[in-house]
User: Fold these one by one.
Assistant:
Number 1:
Amino acid sequence: MMFPVPQTPAVSVAVHDQVALITIDNPPVNALGPEVVNGLSKAIDEVGRDPSVRAAVIVGAGRTFIAGADIKGLEQMAWGSSTGLPEMHDILQRMEDLPKPLVIAMHGTALGGGLEVAMAGHYRVAVLDAQMGQPEVNLGIIPGAEGTQRLPRLVGMEKAIEMCVSGKPVKASDALAAGLIDRIIEGDLATGALAFAREMAGRGGPYPKTRDRSDRLPSRDGLPAILAAGRALATKTRRHMEAPLAVVDALEAAATLPFDDGCLKERDVFMRCVNGDQAKALIHAFFAERGTARVPGITKDTPVAKVASVGIVGAGTMGGGIAMACANAGMTVRLTDATTKALDAGMATIKKNYDVSVARGRFTPAMVEERLGRIRPQVGYEGFGDVDLVVEAVFENLALKKQVASALNDAARLDCLLATNTSTLNIDEIAAAAKRPATMLGLHFFSPANVMRLVEIVRGAATSSESVATALAVAKKLGKVGVVVGNCPGFVGNRMMFPYMYEAQFLVEDGATPEQVDRALTDFGMAMGIFAVDDMAGVDIAWRVRQELKQFSEPGARKPLVADALCELGRFGQKTGKGWYKYGDDRKPMPDPEVQALIERVTSSAGITRRTFQANEIIERTIYALINEGARVLDEGFALRAADIDVIYITGYGFPAWRGGPMFYADRVGLKTVYERVSAFHREFGDRWTPAPLLERLAREGKTFQAMDRGASELAAPRA
Ligand code: 3HC
Ligand code: NAI
């Protein structure tokens, strides 16, 4: 006999002592898909019709209130396979027109369409740790459910611009101060909200409709300056992005047009944005980031070890940053170094970095004290038998790393996860020294490790699925994005960066200037130019690597001459005050005529004919070098998906998210076009431009990296 399976409706209504509690239950984040929208519509009708109901409350089930429109639906719109959002105007209007008080009760994150629903209620309440925001610009779109028309009516135009342009959520306490919510509820949210609704019903109507308010909108005289400041903010802080500027156009309409006309203007701007390239790229980046957690062999049943305490070996640049990241996430840290002197220097840097955070208002002195209290500096491995994870961050030297791994083998518990932060060395060789390869992997943090979101999780030949799953959980706990990669020299990110960086250096030898190349790259959207990056990381790092790599000793291989010459002069970059650029106290790169003279001298004695370059050629030679190597990495299986490479480049290397990452960008340019240019460079420059076989194949078959990923993800194991 078959039993009917009980279905939890996306929206349900229960009446508690004459107040209706409307619950939205659409896991994981109550996104506004069609079921929620239809359910909400019916619930509003029901509440309106029932004379015994005096008031209503809308609340979200599970971890959060509504976290926005369903981004899967937006993705379909962006790619033209659906034409519109679920119709919200009518529902929002009916909510506002209810003759009984409607209270929205928020917890978790009320974002995007979630906040837009909330603003159509008569009152809003929230628990203290709730957050509210309009993050749409981060997806390349603008609020599309009348948020641009209601938000400025509640919080004023300046605050609305700040929230919509930055996309950053505000805390409940700030929302209360700004007028976005009416009360903070202590204790159980639904109980408090029901009581609040009863209180409002007792006061009697009419109940406030956001759309009728104009008291917080700026005067006609004041408006131009506010809008100009908003547009300047968008241009400065969200460089190259279209949506942050576009959202100001929609917000402007709130102050210049009647409400309904303002909503039409919002719709126009929304449609323009969602149909644009940036929305496609940013939505891709959103799902790519979440997709990194899907790793073959790891299921939701894979055991994940609890990591509450960490031992860090090496208190230098990386060890100190990793210690801060762990302490910030609430973990206790034992930080060890070889000498008291090095340890003291490391702790002094940590304190200095925390002082900067206090000066910038990111942390209070009390928060810093608490965090510092979690970091215990020590020489030696005392207490390492109690920690759940060890991250080794000593000098990049294989013999030293093996020695430390062997010492950790004695010091750490058998089930402790051992990680090395090496950026180039072979994880398996280090794991062999630790004699417990199943619990050993690479955790490749990026500098500054307390800030940068990327961690490459390097899986060795014998690393267990449990260890990888635990590493993914650690990355998440640290607020970072863990991307599982294979064990090849440079792993994924740095392996791809070398051809990119060398191509930039060859361009300079062939006639461009470092500042011209950097300018082309930052105009393309890179956070920094490659020469500024090289100066920051240390020009000598690649120089030392170069001395060990055989690729430059192969016949016909082109060796970077100017980079070597800079290093021979001790111009190692920022740390020596001079590199590709020269630096003053403000650490801003300044073109240096001495470098130009050096370039000319070195290239002339090597017989290189110099010529001028246009920006597009610079971009093709650098970015296509990155893509070609990315295709190789993917084909060889060192990255699981092209989208993982995109995440690595967006979160670790300053690649513009609005271009979706290098592989997505290649798809947009067209793999045939990229392949043809790579082939032309191959004919001109030889082997270093050999087209990656995967690029060649996809170009020939008229396919994309994205389509290839989709095929792969069908085979991939369920999410961890
Ligand atoms: N639509 C569809 N799926 C969503 C979603 C959304 N709005 N928000 C989150 N998800 C999914 C994620 O893809 C993920 O799915 P998976 O488990 O299958 O990978 C799952 O929910 C959990 O997400 P996270 O891993 O990100 O969970 P966190 O707890 O770390 O973060 C969050 C939760 C803060 C809500 C974060 O997911 C987030 O920022 N989401 C996006 C919020 C957003 O941008 N909202 C605006 C949407 S656009 C909009 O509303 C347009 C409107 O104006 C009309
Ligand atoms: P660093 O030189 O700043 O720090 C290394 C620290 O290790 C020093 O404080 C040193 O005293 C200590 N140390 C040396 N031998 C030790 C031992 N036997 N026991 C305990 N401590 C010891 O180096 P950095 O830059 O922090 O690099 C560390 C590791 O991180 C390297 O493997 C490097 O390749 C990697 N890495 C570096 C990045 C960077 O941007 N600096 C980025 C990503 C990875």
Note: The CA atoms of residues 299 and 718 lie 5 Å apart.
Number 2:
Amino acid sequence: MNWRHVGPFRIGLVTSSVFAVLLSVAAQAQTGLPSGQTLEGLAKEAHAKFKEDNSGKNADYIPALAKVPSHLFGLTIVTVDGKVISVGDVDYSFSMQSCSKVFTMCLVMQESGDKAIYEKVSVEPTGERFNSIVAIEEGDGRADNPFVNPGAIATVSLVKATSAQDRWDKIIGCYNKFAGEKLSVLDDIYKSEAETNFRNRGIAHILYNSGHLYAEPLECTDVYTKQCSVGVTCKQLAVMGSVLANHGINPVTKERCLEAKYVPKVLAVMTIAGFYDGSGAWAWNAGLPAKTGVGGGIVAVVPGRMAIAGFAPPLDKFGNSVRAQEAIRYLAEQLDLSIFGSSK
Ligand code: DON
């Protein structure tokens, strides 16, 4: 280009776009964020690589979950600067199941402080299945941690509420803030689980009997069942996770959902118990705080950088989505995301 023939306006424009690019590169360098293009390329690669993996099986102990089409597979990344990168079936609404437990834990800490969880629920891994009764009996009577079923029901019981409706309104209100959108219960899933959740009702009564459930057992079990039946898309789940990556502020709506000081506590429990009795292998392989649900969702958090959500209904023997974990693990390896340090 012959600069003598370019007017001052053009020069100004060129200079300001160069400046904008430099600014964005600098911002990326500062947050350690890969470019949107890199993330999109890798997300597509991960989706293509694991799309045909048909191993695992839908959960069927909640009958409605067996009917969710097994081929569905979505992957979404939400960065702390609000970029949303999606591949596959990211708009299908599936039940959050145990992914919900993370956000009720957040609500209780926001209302009553982190000690409420630490002292009244406990934060220890069980090494047992998510609905184990043995784990309650073997411990000190507390519910072990907020992500196994006993701990999640105990966490629901700690929500400050004057009635079942009030308890529910607080929980869904909290989830809506994290998602930045209005979420609602998938009625068929709720009905199916409510008709078959005898084991969870038993767990609630055991805890109540030993003084480790802090509200009426059947009310808590029912509200817990409802929270597990909340429908989210893969995109919405990733946005919810990105709040934790972004120190408690929703990067899309910019609304604060959780005080920053509580975020590390949530991530700590996600690390030790997010995959239940598969948490050790997940920490080893992916190195990311994450939470799974038997609906096929997984949400993983890369602190200060991004959240990655995956959705695919077939589960492994621990109750964790096969394809979602493969895809997230692939991204974690390719981008060297482990919170424990580089393996390269
Ligand atoms: O209470 C249950 O069994 C289900 N609503 C949730 C279990 C679950 O998602 C375990 N996670 N992988």
Note: The first helix runs from residue 8 to 31.
